């Protein structure tokens, strides 16, 4: 397939040149089928033209009109400038190697319907030993995947991953060669310090690293098992490993990957101007946050943090969370749910600290700052307090801080008795002018009949004002059941906000919705909110 493509490359840095070299060296395509855009000095253009025998252009717009496959290989912050004047259609493919920049962010620039694939090769592309990870955008299909795989097969091996994992991939394999170079450099310096010549130390260190890597690949064994096989109790290897552990070697590597992951997300978050970003409110219910006995389901919070932070580059996100009272019940080891208002308020005060600590740890792992915002119905009804809340939320979003919103159950009265966070989420979505409300619950969506009793409950995919409502049951835990979720969708819909009700147990529900996949139940308003894209 690739031999029939006209390949345009925007950018002429090391990665772009490594990719071109791999394509030509492997025979995947010919020089006449490749063109490059470079707006820099004429000497650089002549150097590239002389090295590869390809045409070097100055206009990305002209290149896009010629190419059937476009590779974006500039700096992440240059996304908008690189695509200025570029018009693409659904019959073209755009492949991006920009670190941290999501497919959603690119799609926001090039427009809907354009197939986008995100790729992360590494510097070993120059010797055709890269490992490239690919993730598909919402309009990319099997044909586009195959084209991308053929393109990067010229510089090494290719893997398909979920886009939510690409920032970690960037930190591990994209930045990884630099970590290995530092290891080799450190081994050489240590060898020289103990009497070896620089040449001998470098040869020993380099071949040791290469040989160890090949050993893992050729045997297929776990690296830990291979390490154990060469470590004799009380021997030299054991002594060296003990020193590395004492110095925090594994922790340092972990911190390197964590910080590089965070930086990848920061680079992505800086690519889409705020005026071009969608705004979504995500609501997570207590039944999805807590397990048996009301204990917080920490793994689910961690999964949510990964999911949300993978989309903060293209979306303004606000999270509405339940679970404070349920967490308080679990923390106090109570077997009977609270009935008195004062009990619920006290348990909310206990559980709220646990809840926010869990969110802080989970989002902090990915470098995403969060802020706790406690609201009551009175805050949203009083004009002055409502405006103060809106301004605070706008300020947080402008700082790329994710607001974590909950009802102030410790002082609330009516809400804690008969209210729910579904309604709060809808009111919040209206307050900040969101385009979409996503309610994550413990069921797939809205069913035609109560799924607990019906043999064939039938999931309802689409609902809207005027549609007949299904038979609705209450959830086992939490103040709101499906009735309150439908009411919240209706409230948001009146303001032109689309609502999706789906399961929190799905892997990557936000990404699935972004890709246009059929997820849960969608409540479509008559007129969509024009805020966002």
The low-pLDDT segments are 414-419, 473-479
What form results from the Cα inertia axes? globular
Count of β-strands: 18
The main sheet orders its strands as 3-2-1-4-5-6-7-8
The radius of gyration is: 27 Å
Strand content of the residues, in percent?
Answer: 15-25%
The helicity comes to 40-55%
Task: Decide which structural class fits the backbone.
Answer: alpha/beta
| Spatial gap, N to C terminus | 33 Å
Describe the sheet with the most strands.
8 strands, mixed
- Mean pLDDT level: 85
* SS summary, helix count: 22
Descriptive report:
This protein has 533 residues and is α/β, with parallel strands linked by helices. The protein has helices at 14-25, 42-52, 60-66, 79-82, 103-110, 142-153, 166-174, 176-193, 198-219, 223-229, 236-246, 249-269, 286-289, 298-309, 324-332, 341-364, 377-381, 383-398, 414-418, 421-431, 482-494, 509-514, and strands spanning 7-10, 34-37, 55-57, 69-72, 93-96, 116-120, 130-136, 156-160, 278-284, 315-321, 370-375, 402-407, 436-441, 446-447, 459-460, 462-463, 498-503, 521-523. 46% of the residues lie in helices and 16% in strands. The strands form 3 sheets. An 8-stranded mixed β-sheet has the order 3-2-1-4-5-6-7-8, with helices on both faces. It has an 8-stranded mixed β-sheet with strand order 11-12-10-9-13-17-18-16, with helices on both faces. Strands 14-15 form a two-stranded antiparallel ribbon. Helix 7 crosses helix 12, helix 14 packs across helix 16 and helix 20 (421-431) packs parallel to helix 21. It starts with 6 loop residues before the first strand and ends in a 10-residue tail after the last strand. Mean pLDDT is 85; it is low at 414-419 and 473-479.
């Amino acid at each position: 397939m690739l031999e029939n493509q006209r390949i345009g490359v925007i950018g002429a840095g090391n990665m772009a040149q490594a990719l071109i070299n791999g394509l030509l060296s492997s025979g995947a395509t010919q020089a006449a089928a490749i063109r490059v855009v470079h707006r820099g000095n004429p000497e650089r253009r002549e150097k590239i033209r002389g090295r590869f025998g390809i045409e070097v252009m100055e206009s990305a717009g002209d290149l896009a009109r010629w190419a059937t496959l476009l590779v974006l290989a500039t700096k992440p912050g240059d996304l908008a400038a690189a695509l200025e004047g570029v018009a693409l259609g659904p019959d073209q493919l755009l492949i991006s190697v920009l670190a941290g920049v999501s497919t959603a962010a690119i799609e926001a620039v090039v427009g809907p319907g354009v197939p986008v694939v995100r790729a992360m090769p590494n510097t070993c592309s120059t010797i055709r030993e890269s490992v490239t990870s690919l993730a598909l955008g919402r309009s990319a299909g099997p044909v586009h995947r195959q084209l991308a795989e053929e393109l990067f097969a010229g510089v090494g091996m290719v893997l398909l991953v979920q886009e939510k994992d690409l920032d970690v991939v960037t930190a591990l394999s994209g930045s990884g060669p630099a970590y290995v170079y530092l290891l080799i450099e450190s081994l050489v310096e240590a060898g020289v310090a103990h009497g070896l010549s620089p040449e001998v130390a470098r040869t020993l260190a380099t071949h040791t690293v290469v040989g160890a890597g090949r050993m893992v690949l050729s045997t297929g064994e776990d690296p830990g098992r291979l390490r154990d096989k060469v470590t004799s109790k009380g021997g030299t290897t054991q002594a060296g490993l003990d020193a590395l552990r004492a110095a925090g070697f594994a922790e340092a590597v972990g911190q390197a990957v964590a910080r590089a992951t965070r930086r990848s997300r920061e680079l992505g978050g800086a690519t889409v101007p705020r005026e071009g970003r969608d705004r979504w409110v995500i609501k997570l219910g207590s039944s999805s946050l807590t397990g048996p006995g009301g204990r917080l389901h920490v793994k689910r919070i961690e999964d949510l943090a990964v999911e949300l932070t993978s989309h903060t580059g293209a979306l303004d996100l606000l999270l509405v969370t339940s679970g404070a009272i349920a967490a308080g019940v679990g923390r106090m080891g109570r077997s009977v749910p609270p009935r008195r208002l004062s009990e619920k308020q006290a348990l909310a005060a206990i559980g709220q600290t646990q809840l926010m600590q869990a969110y802080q740890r989970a989002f902090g792992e990915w470098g995403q700052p969060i802020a706790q915002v406690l609201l009551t119905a009175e805050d949203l009804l009083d004009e002055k307090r409502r405006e103060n809340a809106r301004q605070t939320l706008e300020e947080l979003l402008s700082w790329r801080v994710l607001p974590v919103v909950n009802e102030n159950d410790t002082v609330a009265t009516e809400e804690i008795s008969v209210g729910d966070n579904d309604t709060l989420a809808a009111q919040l979505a209206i307050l900040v002018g969101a385009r979409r409300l996503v309610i994550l619950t413990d069921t797939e969506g809205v069913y035609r009949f109560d799924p607990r009793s019906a043999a064939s409950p039938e999931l309802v995919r689409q609902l809207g004002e005027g549609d007949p409502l299904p038979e609705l049951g209450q959830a086992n835990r939490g103040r709101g059941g499906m009735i309150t979720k439908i009411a919240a969708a209706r409230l948001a819909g009146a303001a032109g906000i689309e609502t999706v009700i789906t399961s929190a147990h799905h892997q990557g529900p936000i990404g699935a919705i972004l890709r246009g996949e059929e997820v849960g139940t969608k409540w479509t308003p008559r007129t969509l909110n024009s805020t966002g894209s």
